[in-house]
Amino acid sequence: MDVSSKSDSLKRSLIIFLLIFLIPGIYNQVSAQTENSVAINLIDGNMEWGDCPDIIPNGCKVTLLHGDLSKNNADVLFKFEPGTNIPEHWHNSAERMILLKGELEVTYEGEDTKTLKAGHYAYGPEKKPHDARCNDEGPCLLYVAFIKPVDAFAGKP
Fold it and tell me: What are the alphabetically sorted keywords of the record (predicted)?
């Protein structure tokens, strides 16, 4: 192999390295810099609330805090009136939850019921059926971070 061939091979390797490693990193930094920050008063904030999915009966409202429900990493806030029963359902996404207000009983299939109070964190695995009830100490205000796009299906997967 002559010096010219080694030089061409080195140039090609450098170009491939730049395309694979550096350019996506630069794009992500620029993309992250163009996104605006978010600050919302979750307890007393003036948010627009919509109805929950049909699988949850009356007594439930929901608002999107950040992200896109059809994409990964959406942050959602649910408000349940006292006594609201959330029937058995499951999600394709795992859920990371923090109860901000009220008292919420959550039961995952095959597990003991957990009683969440304001300030409690809970994690729910993907595709694991669960139900819940907002006790009379409500209303319950529940923050949920979905890892995958937001969905909910009645019953078992």
Answer: Dioxygenase, Oxidoreductase
Q: What is the pLDDT of residues 104-153, one digit of tens each?
A: 999 999 999 999 999 999 999 999 999 999 998 779 999 999 999 999 99
Domain boundaries, the chain: 1-35, 50-154
Homologous superfamily of domain range 50-154: Jelly Rolls (2.60.120.10)
CB 63 within 8 A of CB 100: no
pTM exceeding 0.90 = no
Listed in sequence order, the residues at least 6 apart from 74 whose beta carbon sits closer than 8 Å to its beta carbon are 64, 66, 67, 68, 145, 146, 149, 150
DSSP letter for each residue of 6-26: HHHHHHHHHHHHIIIIIHHHH
Task: Find, among 141, 156, 137, the residue nearest to 55 by Cα.
Answer: 156
